[in-house]
Amino acid sequence: MKPNGLIIAVAVLAVLGGATWWSNKKQAQASKSTDTTTKILSIPSDQFQEIRLKKPAETIDVTGGPGKWRLTQPEALPADPDTVGSLITTLGGLNADAVVEDKASDLTPYGLKEPALDVQIVKKDGKTDDLMIGDETPTGSGNYAKLANDPRVFTIATYNKNAIDKPLNDLRDKRLLTFDSAKLTRVELDAKGMPIEFGKNSGGDWQILKPKPWRADGSQVDTLVNNLKDARMDLTGDTKAAATDFASGAKVATATVTDSSGNQTLEIRKKGDNYYAKSSAVAGIFKVSADTGKNFDKGLDDFRNKKVYDFGFSDPSYLNIQGAGYTKNGDKWMAGSKTMDNTSVQNVIDKLRDLTATKVADSGGGTMVLEADVTSSNGKRIEKVSISKQGDQYFAKRENEPGVYVLDSKAVDDLQKAISGIKEAAPAPAQAKKK
User: Fold this and answer.
1) CATH label, 30-171, candidates 1.10.1740, 2.60.40, 3.30.300, 1.10.600
2) pTM higher than 0.85 for the full model?
3) In the beta sheet, which residues pair with residue 332?
4) What integer pLDDT is reported at residue 180 of this predicted model?
5) 8-state DSSP, 330
6) Residue 109's pLDDT band (boundaries 50, 70, 90)?
7) Which terminus, N or C, of the chain has the lesser number of Cβ atoms within 10 Å?
């Protein structure tokens, strides 16, 4: 063998030997018994003032404080409170899986000389912590980590590393509307060609204010509010393409919410199978999920209360059925001085409670067939309803309300049978005379 070749072979063997040594060393260190009692960081959540995530490709700054977190770098954006809260929780109580070196002289083998992630934390007292996160461990179950002012090298669990290493789109607030639902006073929805306005009455229940004052299905309005609150931007697509498609898309709906801080508006449009949104609360136009788009494609009939009676599970105290009055006295129903059979009266109450329209119409009439008034809520709610028949169709009308409720004929037949079944209570059995 030529001398030069021998020298090269020796050099290669030395490099391979060194690499094997480092690999074996790291493997041995990584296989040390896990000891999650070693604290790397211990910071109360209310002491965080700034978090800087320095990565080779970008630096992300989160500043502010609890409830006021904002992104200031690479651009000024609201921060997602839940994601930042999770980041703070992970950093504030970060434990090591193991200590792999008590005093590391060379950080290169751990990927810590030029770490892939450098987390700089500024606390309210002005003091800082600098956490460096490097390569994966040979087992792939964790990453090497080190504090800048601590000679030790640790390993941390992969899930902790992933909870800290958040991209910009995860950290930014993706809500399209930021209203306070607890302080909401008005909701407007313009969809299907008819603007609808909702407001709350003195009892805190949702009502339809426009186009006419009608009873609202409170659960459907609450669902609308929740859908508006949960509307999120989809940041995976091309924002320029989203703006173009929004401009040429067909309008689906425009929603406006009003709380103590003012109005916020969300407009939804559709292009092809995709939905896009523009919000007054955040700059830009964004793609949204198909479910989000469809949630607002609703009309007046979706929100009108189709229950004929409002008393729900509030026990009535008085019934007036076809001019016959029934009063609740303790646990007994009375008709004047007569004690009525509770089961037969309760059967009527259940039928009235469940009476639901198939749809709500602007008009309908015919011959009166039934009047049933219900007093509930300790006398505070009195509901007077008349039922008429025209041909084969039944209609119900509430006193002092526009529109009529179209009823299923079987429901009316069942109600009439229940009313005809009201009877007096059976007399108490006679007691045997004592001998």
Assistant:
1) 2.60.40
2) no
3) 329
4) 92
5) T
6) very high
7) C
